[in-house]
Amino acid sequence: MTTEVKVAAGDTSDTGSTGSGANPEQSGRLSGALDGARARASEAYTAARERTSAAYGSARETASRASQRTSETVETYPEAALLGGLAIGAILGAFLPRTQRETELLGDTGRRLNQTAREAAEAAREAARGKLDEAGLSRDAARQKLSDLASSATEVARTSASAAAQAVKGGQGQ
Fold first, then answer.
1. CA distances from 165 to 32, 49, 56, 162, 169 (A)
2. Number of structural domains, the chain?
3. What sign for the dihedral angle of Cα 30, 33, 35, 41?
4. Model-level pTM?
5. Which of 41, 63, 55, 59 has the alpha carbon at shortest distance from 152?
6. pLDDT digit string (tens) for 141-150?
7. Which domain holds residue 44?
8. Among 59, 51, 67, which Cα is nearest to 159's?
9. CA-to-CA distance for 17 and 100, rounded, in angstroms?
10. Mind listing the pLDDT tens digit for each residue in 74-91?
């Protein structure tokens, strides 16, 4: 400990002082410094909390708008949403590996289920094509709408992440 800190804390064991306490002026300075540090820490905490709250509110609002736009798009183009859901399901199913145990247990039943599932998927695809044709929507138009929807969702995520990052960066500068 430095002599100044010892004196401020009331430790005069090796300062050569024979007094019974700290120098009032030094004690006052230490107390003032501690009070200042507490005040700055409190201000920094409050500012960070406010920025975090603002970033959370902004991200929440952006997500809400994206959700609303998605709902409107699905309501306007339900066939395209159905087609997109089927495509995502088919992709996920293609990536899930068949286990040996599954093959052993299901055997012929599994093959029949697989064939039935293929037929059902084909029927769904044909029905979706028919509905899209009835609505005057082409495959390209449906793909464009799904692409626009995916782009909007990506932009929402990017904007939310950027707002949160900016809030954090703003808090570090103070």
1. 35, 14, 11, 5, 6
2. 1
3. negative
4. 0.33
5. 63
6. 777 777 888 8
7. 3-172
8. 59
9. 86
10. 888 888 888 888 888 878
